[in-house]
Design goal:
Elements lengths: L2 H26 L9 H19 L4 H6 L1 E5 L7 H11 L8 H4 L4 H6 L1 E5 L2
Antiparallel strand pairs: 1-2
Helix pairs in contact: 2-4
Length: 120
């Protein structure tokens, strides 16, 4: 499978998982959460979704399904926490998703010095 198609499927699957979890969370606490705070809660949940899965597993649920994994581009594992932190923050840049139209690797991969590989 071509890398861009793989990444697109990862994005679709992760978006479905994220929004499903967010809806379940928001519906569970609908009487507690003020509607003005939903935007901020969804931003924090989005950050935590990607950061925690990629830091601890190297895979989000979408990557698990497509049998792919995020790895460091170099053998140096120092500052891995910071790399994942940067990778997750760059996802908030609106044109990050469009970077795949022009680049082989996404902007969040380039900035964090990471890449996604297909597992065998």
């Amino acid at each position: 499978m071509e890398a861009r198609i793989l990444r697109f499927f990862n994005f679709l699957l992760d978006s479905a998982f994220y929004f499903s979890l967010l809806i379940i969370f928001l519906m569970s606490f609908k009487n507690v959460i003020d509607k003005d705070n939903v935007k901020w809660i969804s931003i924090v949940c989005y950050f935590l979704y990607y950061f925690l899965f990629e830091y601890f597993k190297g895979q989000t649920p979408g990557k698990m399904i497509t049998k792919s994994k995020m790895i460091s581009s170099s053998d140096n594992r120092n500052f891995f926490f910071i790399r994942i932190f940067v990778r997750t923050l760059v996802r908030f840049i609106p044109f990050d998703i469009l970077s795949y139209l022009f680049l082989d690797r996404g902007l969040h991969d380039i900035c964090s010095k990471t890449e996604v590989i297909k597992l065998k």
